Amino acid sequence: MTPIGVIGLGLMGSALAERLLGAGHRVMGWDLDPGRTAALRERGGDVAKDAEQVFAGCRRVLLSLPSHREVSDVVQGAGAFLTRGLTIIDTTTGDPASTEELARDLGARGIIWLDATISGSSAQVRAGSVTLMVGGDAELFDTCSDIFEAIGRQTFHTGPAGTGAKMKLVTNLVLGLNRAALAEGLAFAGSLGLDPVVSLAVMRGSAAYSSIMDTKGERMIHGDFAPEARLSQHLKDVRLIVDLGQRAGLPMPLSAAHRTVLESAEVAGCGDLDNSSIIKVLVAPGRDRGAT
């Protein structure tokens, strides 16, 4: 069985590899961190010595990297190992313009590019409950349906290359604001002397409900900020969202305010914590754990 490659085995990449292994696929992975590649080997995956070996040994390769910059570096560094007929599935959240440029350049060499962004955290990937948004040729999208079905609950073909990256920013804008609103709401409830557990239950049963309450509410209440999706990664996305929106002539006031709050949280040491830790800079002074 020809393996499916995974380059980047951080929170999201390791979860993707686990889903593929669980579905019976053979997986070959690589990461700069030897500890991450060792973890893949322990789960039954094959470990490559570098990214080039992944491209050489796999016909379909998933990328899960911090930003479009690392994606560009990996692709450009692979050189002659990128051969005609190779399919690259990029799950990274990055600049759509960079995605479109890579897709165009690689397409001229007979290399297939799909930007398959993911709505959901690494924990939700492991649970198979995420949504995939895939940009690229429709027929080529269909040839990778087995991968998408192994990873998530539902998959949308969003249009040509670059539209998956764009749609991810749209969903991240709304998701991030929902998360920030929940954090501020719980902080507000605490400042009024309301029980945070009851407050969360009421919000979940009211018209204020959003699914972020199911994934982040308990974490905010109890100060459980072990990372499933790091705050600094979302700040990277929000900066990109604000920049692209303002370049399109939109004022983006809510996202700009969100960016400011996230920057304060990063300065406060929350960057490597779960993005639910945004509540730490929204609670009243002296409250240093969640909303309690």
Commentary on this structure:
With 292 residues, the chain is of the alpha/beta class. Helix content is 52%, strand content 13%. The chain contains 13 helices and eight strands. The protein has helices at 11-22, 34-42, 51-57, 68-78, 96-107, 122-126, 138-143, 145-151, 163-191, 196-204, 212-222, 231-247, 253-270, and strands at 4-7, 27-30, 46-47, 60-63, 87-90, 112-119, 131-135, 154-159. Strands 3-2-1-4-5-6-7-8 form an eight-stranded mixed beta sheet, sandwiched between helices. It is globular.
Strand count: 8
Q: Give the structural class.
A: alpha/beta
Number of helices: 13
Can you give the helix content as a percent range?
40-55%
Residue share in β-strands: 5-15%
**Inertia-based shape:** globular
Spatial extent as radius of gyration: 20 Å
Q: Could you tell me how far the N terminus lies from the C terminus, measured between alpha carbons in angstroms?
A: 51 Å
Largest sheet: 8 strands, mixed
Strand order of the largest sheet: 3-2-1-4-5-6-7-8
Order of helices and strands: EHEHEHEHEHEHEHHEHHHHH
Average residue pLDDT: 95
Enumerate the spans where pLDDT stays under 50 for 5 or more consecutive residues.
none
List the SSEs and their pairings.
Layout: E1 4-7, H1 11-22, E2 27-30, H2 34-42, E3 46-47, H3 51-57, E4 60-63, H4 68-78, E5 87-90, H5 96-107, E6 112-119, H6 122-126, E7 131-135, H7 138-143, H8 145-151, E8 154-159, H9 163-191, H10 196-204, H11 212-222, H12 231-247, H13 253-270
Parallel strand pairs: 1-2, 1-4, 2-3, 4-5, 5-6, 7-8
Antiparallel strand pairs: 6-7
Helix pairs in contact: 9-11, 9-12, 10-11, 12-13
